[in-house]
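Case study 2.
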Amino acid sequence: MPGATSSRNTRQRGQAMVEVAIALPILLFILLAVAFLGQGVLERQQALTAARYAAREAAMLATARGLRDKLAGEGLVQMARSGSKVQPAAAKALGAGRAVTIEAPGWSFEPDVRRQALGKVTPLGRHGHVYTARSGDGRFGVGFVLLGERVVSRPALLDWLGRGVNEGSQLLTGRRGSLWKGPGLAAEAYMPGELPVRGAGNQGLMELNPWIRQILEEPVP
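Prediction:
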């Protein structure tokens, strides 16, 4: 009958609308989550690149004043104590639309370094450590410097996607909470540098090799 057919079609349309209303938020949440994860991977890689740029900039600035820094290590000590001068390099590597901060790295690899390679680690500051080793008689020594930077990037687009994921999660589960808390993405990198002739926390070449000092201080006949 025409009336029954019309009623059945109306019920089917109503059922379809209910199914769409249920499935659409889930689909949107999945799309937002995929976009969020993809953008997160991209931003993490960019943060790592920025950290490498920052560490490279620190190594270059450590000897920027030429002979003065190579002899006494003043620039090296400055860069080891503060990462503020490398912030522009990190910001340039990341590009616009991101808040960038520089922090001290974690130096999480150092326990392995102490066991496997060099005998002594001397912190010059939160951003720079000196690694040295001496011969058994103490006459000869070698070493190098590592300058490290930790870059924290807070991308505006990732933050926007993260808020969308949070709202979608709350809508679907009915629970409050945040999957994305907006702390930013962090990456750290290290760059080797050369030891100065003297200084650097008493770990310069002359301190590691007393015979060099003896030669330099020997009077000329």
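Residues 2-217 form one domain.
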